[in-house]
Amino acid sequence: MTEPDTPALRLQDCPNWIYLLQEFDSLYRYGSAGGSKEIRSHRKRVRDTLSSVIDRNPEMTFRTPAIKPVTAHLTRALDLGERNVLSGLSRALSRVSDQLTWEWGYETMPKVLERKYAYFEVLGPQGPVRSERLILGFVLFAPNTTYPQHSHKEIEESYISVAGAWSENDNAVYAPGSLILNRPEHEHRITTGDVDPCLLAYAWIGAEDRLAAPGMRLSYKRKARMTRT
Ligand SMILES: [Fe+2]
Question: For the chain, which has fewer Cβ within 10 Å, the N-terminal or C-terminal residue?
Fold first, then answer.
């Protein structure tokens, strides 16, 4: 006698993942746009797309969990996150932290970055929550990291600072709760503080074919400056 097929899990079968998405939704729904029409419009597009994904109750696609060396800094980043304005997001993330598929995303990357950086997706074409027009994820940096200059073709990106202090293009120091908008093709380079790791939530919004194959590439990988490995 053959076993009946196990029905595929859908989003509504995975409450911890729904709660994490609800935290993202709150960030993009209730945070301020700081008076910027462009940021307001980006926030609206992210939350409207996210709402439509949640309403669709998509099938979940869980890949094999995978870690990278920088994952060793995650608990510290979550501890810091729980003390600040994004404590709800940090706690919701901690509930799914054993199910994450950490990645580098680059075919070629400076060797030193292998110990300093990784990201995972929460929602996107690869899952675990399936979506074709929006990617939500988190990126983690070790202390004292320089993430080399890069841009995203035809993808609009926002970072929301969850834990740690960091800077983009030497323009400012961003604290937890800050939202930074990077328009398509905008070149940006990130540096992180000396003492603690830095955890950023991010959203990518763009055309389906571009999100399915974003072609991540560092603009100036030879100039990557890493002072601690
Ligand atoms: Fe970026």
Answer: N
